[in-house]
């Protein structure tokens, strides 16, 4: 138990301040700032963890797609190589078996093969002294590759069925591969040789044109990049690549490497994880600011309470003899003025701080709501998980806005002057109940209004008090089979203030929390069960206290709740 009389004394306050200063002197910053920073850091860590998982899942998805495309490209190269090999083998066999084919017919067949295989640059048939050439384009092999080609041609002339030389550098800077084939059934000592030169860029482009769309490809042979796609890769995504091996039927091995282009990267990689990260970090900062606000409010409330107790103790001690009483009265009056001025400044500072924070936080929270709306409307590729994340952000933002509105309403009650007049509470309650019944959520609620005496008070404040109590009762009773909210008054002795009550048959709450329900932002149920901000009953308590009255509650779990209030004597 706390000894409030001792706590309120000046000696106690000085000791408390010195103790707090000594206990926190080792900190480089105040515990209040530490709590705010800690909450913001935890929220930011959760946001970064979620962002990391989203980015990792996205990367795994696009990498798996790229591996599948690379396999298809490898298969396409192998099929096209097989087609070339079959055509050349058949042609070599036919020309070697049926000798003496006319020049015109030979050129016709060579031209048909060139049309079928656009990558064919040169076709040459050598049979002893006879030599025929078909040039689709001018071909000149670099000198360092001539010896390798000559050795391969000699092996075919001596009986090897086929040879493949890859890669072969051409004088124009491009790369090619050369296929040498013999008929294998020729009866002479030295069999004829069919030599075909295929350029790699055209070969790769025709094989991959329908399969590598959107990707930058590179074909490697013997460690050299022999064919490079027309589109450059996106340099910012070096992790996003895949390669597969392709094998030519004559023995050469190729490697196909794929990387995304900039256009494909923009299409496949959604910006949603980064937007959610930025939104979550902004929300973490706002949560830290709200924690700071709540802690400042609690600290100043404790200081105000201690000041009031100290003033009461000083007044009680000012009872010595007449001469000392006058001297003490002057001291008490001076101290009271100083404490009152300090209290007034603290209240004004607290209210100004609440208003400033509430207004300053509305713009970034509104920006979050607008951003989630734009994401939903402009990005049709969002899946169900992404849409659910956006809905959660919306709900959290709207709850924060509602809490700030409640905080502003609570703050305004301290600045608004009290204008008393006679108020018919039954008529006022009837009008509020009729408005509540017009909403779909409370259309089934039965409101029972008893005959209650009129009250002397501020009409606008009393309307806010009754509206909060009746709406609160309807909210917690609407889940019952026959929801019911009752407004009435208890019989009071002459000269005593009338005690009014609002009773419901809702879910109720544990009676041990009856004192806490009137605190600011105090809730007994989760927002997923019942909507609300935790400000309504705090407003009820403050209005009653401003009228010189008080509030209290009675309840049990599952048996409904009753809230009582008095308005004090007429002023």
Task: Summarize the topology.
Layout: H1 4-8, H2 10-23, H3 31-97, H4 103-116, E1 120-127, E2 130-135, H5 146-157, E3 162-169, E4 175-181, E5 193-199, H6 200-208, E6 215-221, E7 224-228, E8 242-247, E9 253-260, H7 262-268, H8 272-317, H9 322-378, H10 384-415, E10 421-423, H11 425-437, E11 446-449, E12 455-457, H12 459-477, E13 484-490, E14 499-504, H13 536-546, E15 551-555, E16 561-565
Parallel strand pairs: 11-13
Antiparallel strand pairs: 1-2, 1-5, 3-4, 4-5, 6-7, 6-9, 8-9, 10-12, 13-14, 14-16, 15-16
Helix pairs in contact: 3-6, 3-8, 8-9, 9-10, 10-13, 11-12, 12-13
Please give a structural write-up.
- With 571 residues, the chain is of the alpha+beta class.
- It folds into three domains: 59-268, Beta-Lactamase (2-Layer Sandwich), CATH 3.30.450; 270-415, no CATH class; 420-571, Heat Shock Protein 90.
- Helix content is 54%, strand content 17%.
- It is built from 13 helices and 16 strands.
- The chain has helices at residues 4-8, 10-23, 31-97, 103-116, 146-157, 200-208, 262-268, 272-317, 322-378, 384-415, 425-437, 459-477, 536-546, and strands spanning 120-127, 130-135, 162-169, 175-181, 193-199, 215-221, 224-228, 242-247, 253-260, 421-423, 446-449, 455-457, 484-490, 499-504, 551-555, 561-565.
- The strands form four sheets. Strands 2-1-5-4-3 form a five-stranded antiparallel β-sheet, with helices on both faces. The protein has a five-stranded mixed β-sheet with strand order 11-13-14-16-15. The chain has a four-stranded antiparallel β-sheet with strand order 7-6-9-8.
- α8 packs antiparallel against α9, α10 packs parallel to α13 (536-546) and α12 runs antiparallel to α13.
- Mean pLDDT is 77; it is low at 1-10 and 12-28.
């Amino acid at each position: 138990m706390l000894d409030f009389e001792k706590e309120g004394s000046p000696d106690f306050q000085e000791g408390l301040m010195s103790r707090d200063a000594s206990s926190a002197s080792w900190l480089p910053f105040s515990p209040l700032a530490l709590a705010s920073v800690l909450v913001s850091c935890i929220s930011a860590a959760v946001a970064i963890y979620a962002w990391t998982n989203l980015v990792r899942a996205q990367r795994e998805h696009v990498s798996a797609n790229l591996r599948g495309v690379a396999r298809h490209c490898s298969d396409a190269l192998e099929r096209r190589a097989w087609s070339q090999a079959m055509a050349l083998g058949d042609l070599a066999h036919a020309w070697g078996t049926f000798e003496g084919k006319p020049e015109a017919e030979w050129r016709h067949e060579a031209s048909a093969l060139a049309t079928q295989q656009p990558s064919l640059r040169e076709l040459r048939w050598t049979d002893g002294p006879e030599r025929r050439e078909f040039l689709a384009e001018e071909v000149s092999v670099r000198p360092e590759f001539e010896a390798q080609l000559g050795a391969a041609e000699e092996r075919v002339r001596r009986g090897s069925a086929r040879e493949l030389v890859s890669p072969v550098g051409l004088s124009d800077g491009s790369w090619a591969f050369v296929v040498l084939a013999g008929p294998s059934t020729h009866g002479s000592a030295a069999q004829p040789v069919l030599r075909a030169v295929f350029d790699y860029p055209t070969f790769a482009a025709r094989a991959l044109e329908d399969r590598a769309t959107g990707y930058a490809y590179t074909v490697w042979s013997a460690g050299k990049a022999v064919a490079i796609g027309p589109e450059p890769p996106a340099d910012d995504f070096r992790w996003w690549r895949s390669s597969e091996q392709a094998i030519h039927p004559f023995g050469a091995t190729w490697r196909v490497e794929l990387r995304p282009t900039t256009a494909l990267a923009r299409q496949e990689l959604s910006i949603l994880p980064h937007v959610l990260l930025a939104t979550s970090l902004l929300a973490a900062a706002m949560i830290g600011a709200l924690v700071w606000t709540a802690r400042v409010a609690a600290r100043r409330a404790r200081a105000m309470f201690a000041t009031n107790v100290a003033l009461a103790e000083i007044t009680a001690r000012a009872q010595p003899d007449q001469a000392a009483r006058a001297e003490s009265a002057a001291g008490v009056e001076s101290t009271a003025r100083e404490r009152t001025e300090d209290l007034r400044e603290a209240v004004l500072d607290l209210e100004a701080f609440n208003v400033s924070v509430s207004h300053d936080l509305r713009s970034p929270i509104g920006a979050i709501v607008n951003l989630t709306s734009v994401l939903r409307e402009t990005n049709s590729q969002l899946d169900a998980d992404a849409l659910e994340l956006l809905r959660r952000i919306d709900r959290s933002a709207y709850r924060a806005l509602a809490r700030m509105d409640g905080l502003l309403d609570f703050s305004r009650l301290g600045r608004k002057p009290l204008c008393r007049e006679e108020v018919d509470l039954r008529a006022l309650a009837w009008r509020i109940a009729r408005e509540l019944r017009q909403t779909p959520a409370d259309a089934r609620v039965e409101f029972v209004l008893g005959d209650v005496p009129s009250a002397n008070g501020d009409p606008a404040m009393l309307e806010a008090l009754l509206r909060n109590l009746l709406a609160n009762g309807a909210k917690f009773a609407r889940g019952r089979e026959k929801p019911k909210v009752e407004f009435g008054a208890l019989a009071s002795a002459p000269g005593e203030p009338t005690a009014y009550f609002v009773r419901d048959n809702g879910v109720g709450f544990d009676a041990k929390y009856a004192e806490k329900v009137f605190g600011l932002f105090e809730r007994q149920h989760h927002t997923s069960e019942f909507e609300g901000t935790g400000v309504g009953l705090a407003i009820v308590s403050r209005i009653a206290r401003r009228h010189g009255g008080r509030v209290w509650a009675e309840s049990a779990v599952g048996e409904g709740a009753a809230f009582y209030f008095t308005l004090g004597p007429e002023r």
